[in-house]
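Notebook p. 47: complex prediction with S-adenosylmethionine.
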Amino acid sequence: MPIYKVSSSREKYRKLAIQGDLSRLSGRHKPLETKRRALLIKDNLSRLNVKKNGLVLDMGCGDGTLLRELSSRFGICVGAVPSDEEKNLLARAFCDWENILFLRGESEEPLPELPGRTADLIVCNSVLHGNGFDASSVAKSLGAFSVMQEKGQVLYLGEIPVRNEFEGRDYGLSFRRYLVWCLKTGRLWRLTQNLFMYLRSSITENVYIIQGTSGFHSVPDDFIPLVESFGYQYVSAHDSASNALLTTGNTKKENIDRVDYIFIKS
Ligand SMILES: C[S@@+](CC[C@H](N)C(=O)[O-])C[C@H]1O[C@@H](n2cnc3c(N)ncnc32)[C@H](O)[C@@H]1O
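Predicted complex, C-alpha cells below:
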C-alpha cells in the first residue's frame, strides 16, 4: 500500500526527507513561494537592530531557503530540523556553504549544541501551526526559545494561523474519506492532483502521505500576550500574505489568514 499515514508534522517531513527531494521540505508546492516568504522575512528583519555577523537559528528550517538568504548578514546560520534524515539531506545540499550548519532539534527543547552562545535571531516560520502542535507544545516551544535568547535578541514567529485551518475536515487519516471531502467541498482540482499523486506512488518509490487534521491557531489578541509571558516584548505583526502591518484595530479582520510576529527579548 503506497499510502503513509502520519499524525505529526515531524513524521511527515522525516518521510519526505527519506525520499530525497529537498524542495518538499518547505511544505509548499511552489519553490517561488518559499523564496517570496524568505525575502519578505529578510525585508522585515532589515528594519530591526539585529547584531551584525551574529548567530541566526532557523527552527524548522525546511529546505534552507531562508538561511541561504540570511547567510551574508550573519556569522553563523544554524538550521534545526527534527529528524536525522532531514538534517543529513540539508547538510549534503549545503556542503559548500561555510557558515550554514544543521542540527537535529525540536522546537519544544532548547538546542544543547547551539555553538556555545545564544541566538541573536530565532526564526520559526510555518512550523508551530503544524499537525501535532497544540497550545501546550507551542508554550513549551516559546519557553525553549526564551532560554536560548538574552535581552535585545529578536524572535520572528511566521505564519501563525488566525483560524482553525482544519475545521470541517472530518476525513481523519482515510484517503477515501479525503476524496469524498474534496468532492463535497468542490475541490475538484485538488481531488485530481491527489489522485494523480496516489497513482504515481503506486508505480514509483514515492509514498503518498496523509496527515492528521489537528494543529495550533491563535488570534493576535491571544498570541501576543502569550509570547510576552515568556519574557518578550512585542514589536509588530504583519499579514503573512501581504505583509501589511497589523494595528490594534484590525487584528480580527476576517480576511487575514496567517500572521507574522516580531518580538524582542526583554
Ligand atoms: C511547513 S515546513 C516550513 C519550513 C520553513 N520554515 C519554511 O517556512 O519554508 C515545516 C518545518 O517544520 C519542521 N518541524 C516539524 N515539527 C517540528 C518540531 N517539533 N520542531 C522543529 N521543527 C519541526 C519540519 O521538519 C519542516 O522543516
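Notes: The chain has a mean pLDDT of 92. Residues 9-10, 13, 25-27, 34, 37, 59-62, 81-82, 86, 106-107, 125-127, 130 surround S-adenosylmethionine (CB under 6 Å).
Next step: compare against the earlier run before touching the bench.
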